[in-house]
Amino acid sequence: MRDLRTVIDVPLVRRLIAGQFPQWSQLPLTAVQPGGWDNRTFRLGDAMTVRLPSGAGYASQVDKEQLWLPRLAPRLPLPIPSPVALGMPAAGYPWSWSVYRWLAGKPASTDLVDDPARFALALADFLNALHRIEPDGPPAGAHSAFRGAPLSTYDGGTRTAILALSGAGRRQAALRAWERALAEEWSGPPVWFHGDFAAGNLLVRHGVLAAVIDFGCCGVGDPACDFAIGWTMLSAEGRALLRSATGVDPGTWARGRGWALWKALITLADKRSMHADSVLARHVVDTILDGG
Q: In this structure, are residues 261 and 174 in contact, taking their beta carbons and an 8 Å threshold?
């Protein structure tokens, strides 16, 4: 199936809404910015959002979120997306899609956070709650982009990305850091994980963490991927608070660093990456290679 990122637009969503939920067809509809990669999101009226997978690889996440988000929500300390309706393929769009309740807030960034320490502790509270929910969900796999699966799933791609780094010393340091993470294999019981616990999926309102969105990569398995946030957004002090407040074991923490390194390396190696993404990725790599 060809990629639909360039054609999922307001006219298409209007046709889908009119055909399946005509009671909402007169509501204002606007694309949410910044746009997502796995999904395209649109605001519908004041109280709803429409979310459509951008490719076949993400289509299975719709039914997963529809089923599991209502079950997870009561057990979590912050709002998460709440399904309102399930849309069907139509109007030339080939996959199921979702309507959710709108969650107010802006994607997290350091300049929006009033108290970095409080923010790090709020992240810890959320992860503690999520990781303690009965692990009766879908095991990690293709639906989660292999988040929650062994870090070695991405060994080949990571080693290739390391070769793209400039400087032999830098490449060797990255390889050592990656192999240290690989050595820490997961041996604990499976737990729920978010899978893409990143700044763009954390909503900030009035300076504090207000909601967590985009559970498309969620599932049950190794929670290490959720700790990558320590390097992709937090300072050294924030990482220390997150580690202490979650009580994460050293092996899981090391694998979390590995997940952060993997994502940063493949972003730097991808010539299509936006400049801002590359700047962040370079910062993450530098932090990890400097011992952070």
A: yes
